[in-house]
């Protein structure tokens, strides 16, 4: 069942990518980066469909990097690319949905970032440069970020020569927005707060958190750096919306307590899933005007 859901989401993400490229970015001579940008540029120069260039670029890259990426990732990437190619072929003759620069950057970046993020979140990829970057890192020890930055600088420079400086400037904005949306899709809803509490009143704080806030906490063994005496440190994970309440509860018991809080982008297990459900409910409450 989980695999079926993953492939449904891969389909949705790939379709969104095709819509962003064929209905918004390509007709207006804007690109984002990677092989999708090269495909748009190639289509503009030679008058051939985008899907053909994407196939010619991503196909060989997938073959080269399949071993480095792993069988599961390779199959999901191949499937995502197939859906994206079919979507591009189907949408080729449709007109652009807008010619407004602001709307192109905004909705092109949002759709493309959302599509790529959904595909990556479910174990695939639609852009060959990321695959190539992983392969180059394993084969030649080139940092992934350095490889991607170098490739995209060259691609966006080529876009400036082909489409003009103004289009390239808009393309940089699209690239930035796509990156941010991908980050949000991959990490935004998973973010929780890990908290460490250091206090001389550890037991009353623990009882208040467990009994009043219904939290599950862990007691870590520590040693005072100045006194050398053993002490407990309270550790727990909480959703971002409840952190202020936790802080107030702790300081009610001990105003001098020290709290160290950090954003966590990945958590797993039963409690982590429960926290993600809480976060999703809070977002829904805010969207409905209740939060």
Question: Gist?
Answer:
This protein has 291 residues and is an alpha+beta fold. It has helices spanning 2-25, 34-46, 50-69, 71-91, 101-121, 128-140, 144-163, 165-187, 202-212, 243-253, 270-287; strands at 192-198, 218-223, 230-238, 258-264. Helix content is 67%, strand content 10%.
List keywords for this structure.
291 residues, alpha+beta, Alpha-Beta Plaits, four-stranded antiparallel sheet, 11 helices, 4 strands, 10% strand, elongated, disordered C terminus, N-reg_PII/ATP_PRibTrfase_C, YitT family protein, membrane, transmembrane helix, cell membrane
β-sheet strand percentage? 5-15%
Instruction: Count the domains.
Output: 2
Q: How confident overall, as mean pLDDT?
A: 82
The topology string of helices and strands comes to HHHHHHHHEHEEHEH
Based on Cα principal axes, name the global outline. elongated
Helix percentage range: 55-70%
Please mark out the parts with pLDDT under 50 across 5 or more consecutive residues, or reply none. 270-291
Pfam family, one: YitT_membrane
Organism: Lujinxingia vulgaris
Domain DUF2179: 217-265
Transmembrane segments: 7-26, 46-66, 73-91, 103-120, 140-162
């Amino acid at each position: 069942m989980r695999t079926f859901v993953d492939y449904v989401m891969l389909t949705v993400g790939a379709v969104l990518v095709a819509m962003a490229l064929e209905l918004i970015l390509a007709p207006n001579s804007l690109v984002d980066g990677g092989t999708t940008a090269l495909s748009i540029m190639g289509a503009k120069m030679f008058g051939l469909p985008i899907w053909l260039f994407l196939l010619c670029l991503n196909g060989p890259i997938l073959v080269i990097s399949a071993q480095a990426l792993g069988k599961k990732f390779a199959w999901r990437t191949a499937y995502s690319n197939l859906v994206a190619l079919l979507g591009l072929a189907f949408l080729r003759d449709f007109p652009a949905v807008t010619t407004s620069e602001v709307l192109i950057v905004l909705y092109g970046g949002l759709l493309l970032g959302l599509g790529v993020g959904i595909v990556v979140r479910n174990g695939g990829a639609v852009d060959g440069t990321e695959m190539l970057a992983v392969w180059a890192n394993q084969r030649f020890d080139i940092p992934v970020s350095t490889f991607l930055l170098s490739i995209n600088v060259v691609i966006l420079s080529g876009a400036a020569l082909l489409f003009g400086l103004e289009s390239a400037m808009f393309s940089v904005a699209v690239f930035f927005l796509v990156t941010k949306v991908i980050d949000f899709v991959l990490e935004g809803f998973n973010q929780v707060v890990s908290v460490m509490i250091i206090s001389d009143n550890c037991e009353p704080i623990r009882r208040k958190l467990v009994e009043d806030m219904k939290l599950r906490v862990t007691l870590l063994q520590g040693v005072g750096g100045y006194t050398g005496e053993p002490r407990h440190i309270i550790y727990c994970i909480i959703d971002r919306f409840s952190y202020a309440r936790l802080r107030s509860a702790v300081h009610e018991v001990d105003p001098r307590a020290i709290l160290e809080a950090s954003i966590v982008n990945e958590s797993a297990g039963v409690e982590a899933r429960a926290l993600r459900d809480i976060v999703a409910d809070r977002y829904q409450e805010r969207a409905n005007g209740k939060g």
